[in-house]
Amino acid sequence: MRSDRFPPAVLFVLLALAWACAPAPQEQPKAPAKPEKPPQRYQVRFETSKGEFVVEVHRDWAPRGADHFYDLVTSKFYDGVRFHRVIRRYIVQWGINGDPKIQALYGRMQIRDDPVKQSNKRGTVSFAKLGPNSRTTQVFINLRDNEALDKEGFAPFGRVIEGMDVVERFWSSYGEVAPRGTGPDPTRIETEGNAYLDREFPRLDYIKRATVIFKEPQPEEAAAEPEQPGASPSLPAS
Fold first, then answer.
1. Can you give the residue range of the structural domain that contains 92?
2. Are the C-beta atoms of 201 and 98 separated by less than 8 Å?
3. Strands of the chain, DSSP E
4. What digits encode the pLDDT tens for the residues 58-117?
């Protein structure tokens, strides 16, 4: 067979077509990303309609609550959420997402109770709950010393370290939530979202953005870091 059967230009086109039609190399499956381990201690900055405040969370106070709060913050669950229950000299409560679909998803993720290791002193932060092992997304800041909540199983997992003056200025004139008072109805927030609050309770303050600004790894994670050269080895009742 003659080697010059095809002109060089035609031969080039045929080779290019053969290369294009060859099966693509299969990508090797990648292992799923390892979930991030919640920090031992971390700080969250809340940018709100009244200003900023910072919460410092301690995992050794209430590990389940601290880990769950971290997941909620890093998933941006609290962004846009209203402070729907503000009772002067008692508590500020929030945690119902403005999108009913998102709230329905997270509202099913109940976590088990933590033993109460810290008292509900002014500035501490705890999850709200309706009974044993019922904590989901709502949390509250104590505006006074509420030691009575300790006996009811409300376990603080953090405290406000900056901006308590901001927290105390949140709009409180709507009063207690329905049906106890004339304030927002939590059930309607869950089903109608922020549209309900914007329409009937427009003066509520809200979270613009919540961001983790500091993280201290858990001890075992810190120990695994490479050495440097020369280094030594329910709702609370009112």
1. 41-216
2. no
3. 41-48, 51-58, 85-87, 91-94, 124-127, 139-142, 156-162, 207-216
4. 999 999 999 999 999 999 999 999 999 999 999 999 999 999 999 999 999 999 999 999
Q: Does residue 196 sit within a domain?
A: yes
Alpha carbon 201 to its chain centroid, in Å, reads 24
pTM of the model as a whole: 0.80
Tell me, rounded to whole angstroms, the distance of Cα 71 from its chain centroid.
5
203 found inside a domain? yes
CA of 163: how far to CAs of 46, 73, 127, 166, 170, in Å?
9, 18, 20, 5, 12
Cα–Cα distances in Å, from 2 out to 5, 6, 18, 158?
Answer: 6, 9, 21, 84
User: Which residues pair with residue 154 across a beta bridge?
Assistant: none
CATH classification of the domain holding 171: 2.40.100.10
Count of other CB atoms within 10 angstroms of residue 121: 14
> Given the structure tokens 């500035």, which residue do they identify?
123
User: Exposed e or buried b for every residue in 82-97, given b needs 16+ CB within 10 A?
Assistant: bbbbbbeebbbbbbbb
Q: Is 101 helix (H, G, I), strand (E, B) or coil?
A: helix
Domain count of the fold of the chain: 1
**Residue 225 falls inside a structural domain:** no
Q: Does residue 182 fall inside a structural domain?
A: yes
